[in-house]
Amino acid sequence: xxxxxxxxxxxxxxxxxxxxxxxxxxxxxxxxxxxxxxxxxxxxxxxxxxxxxxxxxxxxxxxxxxxxxxxxxxxxxxxxxxxxxxxxxxxxxxxxxxxxxxxxxxxxxxxxxxxxxxxxxxxxxxxxxxxxxxxxxxxxxxxxxxxxxxxxxxxxxxxxxxxxxxxxxxxxxxxxxxxxxxxxxxxxxxxxxxxxxxxxxxxxxxxxxxxxxxxxxxxxxxxxxxxxxxxxxxxxxxx
Length: 239
Hints:
By secondary structure, this protein is an all-alpha fold.
C-alpha cells in the first residue's frame, strides 16, 4: 500500500509540474506573441508599400516614355493613324520617313509596350491604360514603316535604308525573325524570276519574236573569202 501512495504522490507532483510548465509557456507566449504579431503586421505593411512604390515607378516610367513617343510622332513624317486606317503610303511619304527618328521611337516602344500591352501589363490603373491605344497605334506604324523602308532599300540596293530599317527592328527586339523573313522573301523572288526566265515557252516566244538571223550565212562568208583569195592570186600573176 505504501508504494501505491508514493506513486500517487509522484503523479500529483508531476501533474503540478506540468501545470507550472504550461503556465510558463503561456506567459512566455503572451510576452512574445504580441511583439511578434506587431512585427509581422509591420512587415506586411512594408511589403505592400514596396509593391506600391514599384507600381508607381512603372507608371511614372510609362508616362515619361509615352511623352517621348508623342514628341517623336511628328518626326516620323507620316501620321500613324493613317497607317492604322489602312491608307496606302505614297512614294513621297515613304521618302520623308526619317529612319533615325523611327529607331528612337522603336527604342521607346520596346520599353513601354510590355507595361501596357504585354502579359505583365499594368491593369486597373487608368493613368496607364488610357495610353495603351496610342502606344499600339505607334507600334503598328513604326513596324509598317520600317518594313516598307526595308523592302524599298533592298529593291534599290540602298545600304543606308537597309541598315536603318534593321536598326529599328533591333531596337524592337525582332531583328532575327525580320532578317530571316527578308532573306526568305528575296530567295523566293529570285527563284520565281529564274524559273520564269528559263521557262521553255518563254524562251520559244523570245526566239520567234527575234526572227531569223540577218547577217551573212556561213556558206556565203566562205564563198566570199575564196573569191577574195582567187582575185588576189590573179592580180599577182598579171603583174
